[in-house]
Amino acid sequence: MYYFYYLPIGTEVRLRKTPFVTLVLIGLNVASFLASQLLGRGSSFFLGLAFVPARFELHALLTSSFLHADIFHLTANLLYLWIFGSVLEDRMGQLRYLTAYLVCGALSMMAQAVAVVNLLPQNAAIPVVGASGAISGVMGLFLVRFYYARIRVASLGMLFLQGIFRATVSRINAMGAMMLWILIQLAYGLATSNNPISTTAYWSHISGFAVGLVLGLSGGLSSEAVLERKLLRGKRYFEEGKWFAAMGELVEFLRTRPEDAEARALLARTFLLTGQRKKAAAEYAKAVAAELKSGHRGVAIELYEEMKRISPEPPLSPSFQILMARCLEESGRLGLAADAYATFGTLHHEKDKAPASLLKAAEIYSMKLNDLARAGEIYRKVRALYPQTRWARMARRRLAEVGRVVARRSTTTPRVSF
Length: 418
Hints:
Blueprint: E1 7-11, H1 20-39, H2 44-49, H3 58-63, H4 71-92, H5 94-119, H6 132-145, E2 150-159, E3 164-173, H7 174-191, H8 202-218, H9 221-239, H10 243-256, H11 261-273, H12 277-294, H13 297-310, H14 318-330, H15 334-347, H16 354-368, H17 372-385, H18 390-412
């Protein structure tokens, strides 16, 4: 019942990509629970997968972690798994995360079996089920990897005699939150160690957490944590308006992780807020390039729009400038797309794709945006930059078409006499 008194509901760690392994684990737990409910807890399905301390079976060390006694047991475990497991998978990688999850689950089951056989031997024939041990291991891993992070915690304080119930949501440092959680497990574990009617595997929780700590420390998660802490401190300083402190943390982080687009974008905004526009534009360009390489086109476009406000000629490399122009066109931002094509053709007019890019920009201006003046300007630029070429001939023809359209409009425009 401790979930009602201490319930994590989120963390400040940003999820960067979809945690597919965590979602699969959640799906398997839900499917197993539904199957056990339909077939019954006394079915061969349930008993064959459950771990029974009296009959030690290796396969049951893993399969029992996907069975749950009731809907509350399942819901609480999956909430913890999503909150802590999703960001761990994001940073650890799928294979390393899944391996750690299964190892924590198996070893925590073994520890619970030892506790039951030695403390409550009369319960040795009762199945032990649930993902609590594996998820406790995930919490141990989380503590090593994100010891610096804050966890949003919902708590319910009760004053029974006065009949007052007070629910609060607060932010607790991960170290304090996890220590509070493990102390609760130890207290309940000791209090129920000789209670034959206890139905919660507290020693599985405690041992799983310990295994997670050991795996995290031995697997190098602590060194990764020290580095990412700089990024999080930079974010906090930024939110608090401490621009130069944020700048220092972000620069230090990017020395080791220069490809991190999120940090680049935040550093660009920090430079902008401190009046360093040239440095801001350079960092925006690096952030846009990183997001394009990662396939995050929507984010790249947002950053590009921010960059354009401070730099009419974005300092992107030629390959990323033309790629950004295509992304803008595909997303329907035609004004920005035409400008991006024109920027590429103007700044890199010696490149093979430059004349085609300029003609593309002029076509968008004339056909889509109805800006014939700007289109004519670009056609004349193509004619001047690439004389005696097929590009110049194409520009000449299209410029003539633009001229005819302008002339036709001027003759059909009604005149008003006063």
